[in-house]
Amino acid sequence: MVQKSKKPPSAAKIAAPVAPKRRGRPRAYEPDVALGKALDLFRRDGFAATSLDDLSAATGMNRPSLYGAFGDKRELYIKSYQRYRDDARAAMADIFRSDAPLRERLERIYRIALDIYLSGESGPRGCFTVMTAASEAVSDPDIRNMVVEGLTELDKAFGICFRHAKERGELPEGADPASLAHLASATIHTIAIRARARVPRRELEAIVKGALDVMCAAK
Amino acid sequence: MVQKSKKPPSAAKIAAPVAPKRRGRPRAYEPDVALGKALDLFRRDGFAATSLDDLSAATGMNRPSLYGAFGDKRELYIKSYQRYRDDARAAMADIFRSDAPLRERLERIYRIALDIYLSGESGPRGCFTVMTAASEAVSDPDIRNMVVEGLTELDKAFGICFRHAKERGELPEGADPASLAHLASATIHTIAIRARARVPRRELEAIVKGALDVMCAAK
DNA sequence: GGAATTTAGTGCGAAATGGTACAAAAAAGT
DNA sequence: ACTTTTTTGTACCATTTCGCACTAAATTCC
Q1: Through-space separation of residue B60 CA and nucleotide D23 C1' in angstroms
Q2: Residue A135: closest CA among A39, A48, A37, A44
Q3: Which residue segments constitute the domains of chain A, with CATH numbers given?
């Protein structure tokens, strides 16, 4: 009975390309793709170095429209970050939920991570959580909380992975899932950083392989 | 005649607090402390969000003096980064060179790292190499090269550590020093990032302990 | 004491920045 | 046809930003 009549958030993708007949002048942009463009810019240059003019040019929206649709620059940044998190979570959710052996699951997670971090026409983008931690997180409490959330979410996902693996006997008795999860996150962070320094994919994959050898206790 | 009469670069620290009787009006600032202040600002806010006015206020130098002493903003940033690297290297060099057991050496390294990352009156500062990778490194080749240098320098130092430990029998036969070194660097990176998200020192120390348990193969 | 030299400090200027007011435009409702 | 609603697009404003002339000050050399 408590049906939310605003707008169907998840059904929008498939079920609502039918125009809902809004009242006034129609938008000249698609909010989703515009937010994607903004995200890409923020990921490349960071908050401070990205101007509203840049954002306006990239999204095709003029500044007043930008402001009306997403709020001021900071709000747009926050929405971009949420979008980033949603995308990343969606890309990894299936793998984290799967029942494949530990090593295979981790390999697939890191493959996706590298895809994300190395994408971008004008150079690799790295991890937006790491970028935000490195910039706005110290001074902006709200943004900082989102970053902490992003970090712990990954820790937890890895933690479940390792705990599950241990239960299935894939890890030695003494293995501590929490510590291994932090190491797995640390490996994510180090490849994200190195990706932005334009370290080639091959090297990053080698780092991942070495980390997996240790974490999965391959002898 | 080929005598370089400019200024003695390395002897300056100890041997030359005696005024060398420079020619014109004396400086109203000490370049070293000014650079330190600039570094602190850059570490807090990053390149783009730090204005010349901020730098001028923090160093006590007016803009033309700043410009004359260090060049433009980018050059000042580069010099600040070099200073950061020099300081960090100096703080860790003894430990890396020491003959203490692996675990003890690593513990001391991470203690110093946390001291560096958590210092700063207005909040933790994190690692400047990580911050720079997360911002300027993609677009500025010179800065990127310095970042890569910083990353590999740490990898190598850790690598020597682990190789040495393996030779002394502190590590199992199958251990791969290079992989362990990357994991050690990754742990540095992850605590640097979390520090900026204001994760308390206790938690960071716990992460380090867990990582050491794995890396040192404590059973 | 005066010339030479080096730095400090004021202040300017051109460009960029974040944000908004306001009118024109494009659609639906009546 | 007219009103209402929503968005667009131009134009503008106040502020900030970077960089640099240019003058005043402080010191050494002769």
Answers
A1: 21
A2: A48
A3: 82-215 (1.10.357.10)
